[in-house]
TrEMBL record:
Major site of localization recorded for this protein: cytoplasm
Functional description taken from the UniProt entry: Transfers the 4'-phosphopantetheine moiety from coenzyme A to a Ser of acyl-carrier-protein.
Residue ranges annotated for the 4'-phosphopantetheinyl transferase domain, each copy included: 6-89
Subcellular compartments: Cytoplasm
Protein name, entry field: Holo-[acyl-carrier-protein] synthase
EC numbers: 2.7.8.7
Protein's UniProt keywords contain Metal-binding: yes
Lineage, broadest ranks: Bacteria, Bacillati, Bacillota, Bacilli, Lactobacillales
Family: Belongs to the P-Pant transferase superfamily. AcpS family.
Top-level taxon of origin: Bacteria
UniProt keywords, alphabetically: Cytoplasm, Fatty acid biosynthesis, Fatty acid metabolism, Lipid biosynthesis, Lipid metabolism, Magnesium, Metal-binding, Transferase
Amino acid sequence: MIVGHGIDLQEISAIKKAYDKHPRFAKRVLTEREFELFESYTGQRQMTFLAGRWAGKEAFSKAMGTGIGKLTFQDIEILKDDKGAPYIAKSPFVGRCLISISHSGNLVQASVILDDDKG
């Protein structure tokens, strides 16, 4: 049964501006494993990745009903599977977490569905 759904829309340019001003911004948002992926990219792809993880974590926190604050960016880890699709590898939610991240132009959007697997 679906117990939460969250959506977030983020401007990639705003994430780039934050990163350019404070390069440690990426380490605040990304877990260690996510940061390794981030470093494997260059240029605009890095910013798209960072913005996608930001939006995914915001969407997750909205699905939980808490928002970022009670949860931190480090509580949620979004990795990619063999095909490159994102998945939530770590979170405080017990159950199934579904995530979709999409980007176009200057925008990245993420949607998270939390399912308690009880029916």
